[in-house]
Amino acid sequence: MKILVINSGSSSLKYILYDMEGGAENVLAKGVIEKIGEKISFLKHKANDSETRREVQARNHEEAFAVVITALMGDGKAVIKSTDEVDAVGHRIVHGGEAFFESTLITEEVEKVVQDYCRLAPLHNPPNLVALRAAQKFFPRVPHVAVFDTAFHQTMPKVAYMYAIPYEFYEKYGIRRYGFHGTSHRFVALRAAQILGIPNDRLNCITAHLGNGVSLAAIRNGKSVDTTMGLTPLEGMVMGTRSGTIDPSIISFLIENAHMTLAEIDNMLNKKSGMLGISGVSNDVRDLWAAAEKGHERAMLALDMFAYSVRRFLGARMAVLDRVDAIIFTAGIGEHDPGLREKICAGLEHLGIDFDAEKNKTCIAKEMEISRPGSPIKVLVVPTNEELMIARDTAEVARKAKGKP
Q1: 241 and 128, same structural domain?
Q2: Domain boundary pick from 152, 167, 183
Q3: What is the spatial distance between Cα 15 and Cα 6, in angstroms, rounded to a whole number?
Q4: In a domain, 169, yes or no
Q5: What is the helix (H) or strand (E) element at residue 334, kind and residue range?
Q6: Residue 8 φ/ψ, nearest 5 degrees
Q7: What residues contact residue 180 under an 8 Å CB cut-off, 6+ apart?
Q8: From the CA atom positions of the chain, what is the Rg in Å?
Q9: pLDDT (tens digit, 9 = 90+) per residue, 179-218?
Q10: CA 111 to CA 191: how far, in whole Å?
Q11: Is the pLDDT at 276 greater than 60, yes or no?
């Protein structure tokens, strides 16, 4: 079974073609088209141990899909001879609201619901839908499956997802905490259960997705019971360019005193805040470490604030669980930055975390335990693979749709 996984943004289209036959999970090809809609777009494509990058024409997502098909079938490095070889297409959809608890076969009704949730994810769901509709034109006879970032967190209890504002706003507008990065949190939790030899339905853990976007999930018996992002990905910890949780009255203060518009404040909180806003240097932690080593105080402050916010939110998630088997770091920072992992974990022995600083230093982008033997709470690094999780879900849903076990 060949599964094509699609992850679309407003001006980009990422894709991976998997061969899932007989339990295999082999990557046949992968790539990305960038700058869709501009005069010149770029394709980066990797297959058969070779990688190419070239200019292409992709004025819209439909043209981008045509480029993808050509790349998969052409240039003497073909991984498929026909689009008929693709058995199903899996789509990353950011927001599924309260409608979807699991990955779902896309029907007209499902598409309408995803369209409705554009009001909650105006930056993400619209390009997801554009890519979906383009893919349906090229693959009209195969199952298309939606894998939602929010679905994993729909097991949260009401006490965790409600905001303490008048209840009518939840009933009328659906204002509540939804959470994001769910596919990543689910993947690394499942992998951690395998590593630790604990059945997934008995695993209690905290997964830390630390990238440019940052979220924690408290997982009890394999299910999400609390997370840090909320109605939007802005809530929670200090992030690359997002402020994370702030006093809501800061918004009205800025309107009255800085004479900013709501649009300007929204842009500032999402794109000009976080570690970028504090440091004035960058949202890339590699740049911040380099600046901090040269004595840049605000760069060091940004790194310290990031680590402090993760520690603070980590403690809150630990309080939610009656038992914590493991803390799992993943995503760009979580997998690659020993310095920030140490800032987050060092000195937490009183909470049952016996962190091994020396092992941590050797762990870059690989599976590894970075706590000492006998630590009551294990600390793991597990590289995430959201695309593989999407492929697995897509294969399972497609088999059921075709009446196969």
Answers
A1: no
A2: 152
A3: 5
A4: no
A5: helix 331-336
A6: -110, 140
A7: 94, 149, 150, 153, 213, 215, 227, 229, 233
A8: 22
A9: 999 999 999 999 999 999 999 999 999 999 999 999 999 9
A10: 31
A11: yes
| pLDDT recorded at residue 281 | 96
Could you tell me the pLDDT band of residue 23, with boundaries at 50, 70 and 90?
confident
Does some domain include residue 170? no
Residue range of the domain that includes 131: 2-152
CB 391 within 8 A of CB 16: yes
Please give the tally of structural domains in the chain. 2
**Alpha-carbon gap, residue 121 to 174, rounded angstroms:** 12
* Per-residue confidence (pLDDT) for residue 75, from 0 to 100: 59
- Just list the catalytic residues: 149
Q: Is residue 31 part of a domain?
A: yes
The residue count of the chain comes to: 405
Any idea what the CATH number is for the domain that residue 80 is in? 3.30.420.40
Backbone phi and psi for residue 214, each to the nearest 5 degrees, phi listed first: -135, 130
CA angle 232, 243, 335 (to 5 degrees): 85
Using alpha carbons, select from 86, 53, 48, 91 the residue that is nearest to residue 69.
86
Q: Which of 230, 395, 384, 382 is nearest to 313 (CA)?
A: 230
Q: What is the DSSP letter of 241?
A: S
Angle subtended at Cα 314 by Cα 308 and Cα 316, rounded to the nearest 5 degrees:
110
Q: Which residue has the tokens 């760009």?
A: 332
pTM to 2 decimal places: 0.93
75 lies in the same domain as 13: yes
- Burial letters for 144-179: b for 16+ Cβ neighbours within 10 Å, e otherwise? bbbbbbbbbbbebeeebbeeeeeeeeeeeeebbbbb
DSSP run (H or E) holding 320: helix 297-320
In this structure, what token pair is assigned to residue 377?
């709470």
SS3 for 177-192 is CCCCCHHHHHHHHHHH
Would 167 be classed as within a structural domain?
Answer: no
Is the domain of 119 the same as that of 17? yes
